[in-house]
Amino acid sequence: MNGEKIVSAEPTIGYIHRAFEKLAEHRPYNQITPITDRLNYCSSPINNMGWHMTVEKLAKIEVPKRAQYMRVIIMELALWTAP
After folding, report:
1. What is the mean pLDDT of the chain?
2. What's the number of domains the chain is made of?
3. Cα angle value 15/19/21 (rounded, 5°)
4. 42 lies in which domain range?
């Protein structure tokens, strides 16, 4: 800094959206859901589903069709209730 001017900067990768990535690095997978809730309050179930589907794919977990349908319903309701 030189007064109010930025003279040089050193970018640090991993601090994108509220430092979610850095917070998630040091937690077990089941403690990341509350963090994904806070990324976007209007559509938090959608953020959660993205995370859970990623973990399920990595762990090769097969989700029953009924649960998949329920997820879609929850995500749709979250979009309709957003302000």
Report:
1. 82
2. 1
3. 85
4. 20-81
Residue 5 lies in a domain: no
Query: Contact, 49 vs 63, CB < 8 A?
Result: no
- Find out whether 71 and 49 touch, Cβ atoms under 8 Å: yes
pLDDT of residue 81: 65
- List, for residues 13-46, the tens digit of each pLDDT value: 655 556 777 788 888 888 888 877 777 777 778 8
Give how far Cα 82 sits from Cα of 42, 76, 77, Å. Answer: 5, 10, 9
Backbone angles phi and psi of 37, in degrees to 5: -60, -35
Q: Tell me how far the alpha carbon of residue 21 is from its chain's centroid.
A: 9
